[in-house]
Write a structure and sequence with these properties.
Number of helices: 11
Strand order of the largest sheet: 1-7-8-9-6-5-2-3-4
Oligomer: single chain
Structural class: alpha+beta
Largest sheet: 9 strands, mixed
Number of strands: 9
Number of domains: 1
Shape: globular
Helix content: 25-40%
Strand content: 15-25%
């Protein structure tokens, strides 16, 4: 009861379509374990970072046109408890130590891989932000960073590239579990309930937690938004505010790209970027050559390599992520 009394109702802001948004560059990433030797607790994974560039044309059909795409695959070895193998990649060794310090605990192999994937996504996003001007650079996920120098530097470089080329940096999260509105529900669930019968497109700002309590500090402002009259769901959206556009205008741009019937309220270029990134989880055999090359550097025999080859994996997914995977197959 106390929580309900303390809760201030969110302040909603209405917006509409602009019908003249700038280009959108969408970035997503994926990873897949392809080799695991439990005897030495060593794993090899492939990380894929993918980018697509779309233009919006109000007077044509289809209105969204793909004009560019790019992806990069990177094999990584993760052996946190094997000193000999860990020395194979000193950058990963350093990253492992910094993540451990930031979290105050030993990170899991999955946690290290997630940070490495984030690093690759930031690098590709910076590359695209340097190539394009006056565009929306939209990343999958929240624009929050772990306090690790390599990742902080990559995020800083991306932000500076966006500023230099007048691009707007945005993060769109498939899943959000923050509880900053002092409700028994998550912020996302509360906003969904409050706007359920409201046909307008709306956004509300979610205030940051005090800096001293931030494990993953945000790069910009955090919002929850409906990007369609009948959205598939509401999304957390982080925006690094540009100097030339208002927040309301940016949401209008995002809504322009979120009108595709199969994903109402979700920027469609992110669907396409996800499809390219997720391909590696569906066709693992295409990475056998990467595995052989990495194994040779580690002085592993072909027998050792293929004995511990991972032919499939079961990955936990939230409902929207599963829906995204199913539709883009």
């Amino acid at each position: 009861m106390k929580q309900a009394e303390e809760m201030s109702p969110p302040i909603f802001h209405e917006f509409s379509y602009s019908n003249k948004p700038p280009k959108m560059i969408a970035i997503d990433g994926s990873n897949r374990w392809i080799w695991y030797n439990p005897d030495v607790n060593a794993r090899i994974a492939i990380i894929r970072a993918a980018a697509v560039v779309y233009e919006y044309h109000f007077d044509s059909k289809p209105q969204l046109k793909l004009i560019d795409h790019k992806f990069r695959d990177t094999p990584v070895l993760i052996a946190p408890n094997n000193a000999e193998m860990l020395n194979y990649d000193l950058e990963i060794k350093k990253l492992h130590q910094e993540i451990k310090k930031a979290l105050g605990r030993v990170p899991t192999a999955r946690g290290i891989l997630g940070q490495l994937r984030e690093l690759e996504e930031y690098k590709l996003a910076e590359e695209m932000a340097l190539e394009y001007f006056d565009s929306l650079v939209v990343m999958d996920g929240a624009l929050t960073i772990i306090q690790v120098k390599q990742i902080e530097d990559a995020a800083k470089n991306l932000r500076e590239a966006c500023i230099d080329n007048r691009n707007t940096l945005i993060g769109v999260s498939k899943r959000n579990t923050t509880r900053r509105l002092k409700s028994n529900l998550t912020d996302e669930a509360l906003i969904k309930r409050l706007t359920k019968n409201d046909p307008r497109m709306l956004y509300t700002e979610i205030r940051d937690v005090p800096k001293g309590k931030q494990v993953y500090p945000p790069l910009g402002q955090t919002f929850l938004a409906k990007l369609h009259e009948k959205p598939v769901k509401t999304f957390r959206i982080d925006i690094v505010p540009p100097k030339k556009e208002t927040i309301k205008t940016i949401f209008s741009y995002l809504a322009d790209y979120s009108m595709v019937d199969s994903f109402p309220g979700y920027p469609y270029p992110l669907v396409d970027a996800h499809s390219i990134a997720a391909l590696l989880r569906r066709v693992p055999e295409m990475y056998n050559h990467e595995l052989v090359e990495t194994g040779a550097i580690l002085r592993l025999s072909e027998e050792e390599i293929f004995q511990y080859l991972i032919s499939h994996e079961n990955m936990e997914r939230d409902p929207f992520h599963r829906h995204l995977d199913e539709v883009t197959r």
